[in-house]
Structures are given as structure tokens and as C-alpha cells.
Write a structure and sequence with these properties.
- With 182 residues, this protein is of the alpha+beta class.
- Helices cover 25% and strands 24% of the residues.
- It has four helices and seven strands.
- A seven-stranded antiparallel β-sheet has the order 3-2-1-7-4-5-6, with helices on one face.
- A hairpin with a 2-residue loop joins strand 5 and strand 6.
- The radius of gyration is 19 Å and the shape is globular.
Length: 182
């Protein structure tokens, strides 16, 4: 299946909507039809022309990842190696009990940008969060207008395909005939 790219989407998505980077990033990272992704976000509280908060985006993406058969591992920038006397910075998975890192020993909190991310992130698929914006990285290629700009990255989500798509439950549709119980 051909991967969806930002260049393919940008010409038609902005005609009917703005502030839709969350929908674009989800459509690209899950290789899902934009209109279907837009509808899913709308059903989960996103208003056309409006962005969503980082916490709401996180909930929507976590649920959508499960439905589409993906695993998200979330990292956020935090102080690192404070005990050595010289504080450095790292992207840490705070949900994990092992406090796993994806990038460590950064000199500053804002060291990774949309211009230099390739130096820090191995090949793979990621969602990156910036102040008021999100973007997708597919196999080391930024799929966004922020590519080669100096937007500072403060969140990194590693995205992995699990090949276990979950069927969404529709409570109004049933293949079972319950008429004998009525």
C-alpha cells in the first residue's frame, strides 16, 4: 500500500479546514484516509478550524493507534544525569517504569528541531510535538511544512506497526438475531 505524504494532502485539506495538523499527522502516520481520520477526530471532540489540546490529542491518538494496529511510545524532554553535577537533557518515557530514553545527553532542552532531527532520531516513524503544532516523520522523512525550519521539538512519539487491527465496536449494529427474546 502506498504511503500518504504531506505533499499529497496539503493541496486539499486546507481548503475546508485550518489548524488541522493533528488530523494530518494521524492520517499520515497511520496511512489512513484523511476524510476518515477527520471524521474520527470530529467524533472525539475536534471542531473544524480548531486545534485540540495536547492531552486530548494524546487520548485520540492512543485510541486510534489501538484501532489501527499500532503501538505508541511517548517521550518528553526532561532533565537528565543531574547527579554528575552537569545537567543534560533527554527524551524520557515517563509512563514506563524503566524510564527508557530515546535521545539523551542533549546540551539544551531545545536541542532537537525540525531542521536537525535526523542527527538524533534513528530511521523509523515518529510523531513530534512542538509548541502548538504536531508533525509526522515517516522513515526519517519529515511530512510537514516545518521541515528544515528551526521549530523546537518537545515531544517525540515512536510509532510501530503491530499488525493487529482492532475492530471498532458499533453498539447499534448486530449480526445476532435477538427477536426471540423480545
Amino acid at each position: 500500500m502506498k504511503k500518504i505524504t504531506f505533499n499529497e494532502l496539503k493541496n486539499h485539506v486546507y481548503q475546508d479546514d485550518t489548524n488541522c495538523c493533528t488530523v494530518i499527522s494521524a492520517s499520515i502516520i497511520f496511512n489512513k484516509n484523511y476524510e476518515d481520520t477527520h471524521l474520527y477526530f470530529a467524533q472525539n471532540g475536534r471542531k473544524t478550524g480548531k486545534g485540540v489540546s495536547w492531552s486530548k490529542y494524546s487520548k485520540i491518538m492512543t485510541n486510534l493507534a489501538k484501532l489501527e494496529g499500532f503501538k505508541l511510545q511517548k517521550f518528553e524532554v526532561s532533565p537528565w544525569d543531574i547527579d554528575s553535577g552537569q545537567t543534560t537533557w533527554a527524551f524520557i518515557d515517563k509512563e514506563s517504569k524503566s524510564v527508557e530514553t530515546i535521545v539523551k545527553n542533549l546540551k539544551t532542552k531545545t536541542a532537537i528541531t525540525t531542521n536537525n532531527f535526523r542527527k538524533f532520531l534513528p530511521k523509523g516513524d515518529y510523531i513530534v510535538g512542538m509548541s502548538g503544532h504536531v508533525a509526522s516523520i515517516i522513515n526519517g522523512e519529515m511530512q510537514d511544512w516545518t521541515y528544515n525550519r528551526a521549530k523546537r521539538i518537545c515531544y517525540i512519539w515512536k510509532v510501530e506497526k503491530l499488525n493487529k487491527k482492532v475492530k471498532a465496536l458499533n453498539l447499534f449494529e448486530s449480526s445476532n438475531d435477538f427477536s426471540e427474546f423480545v
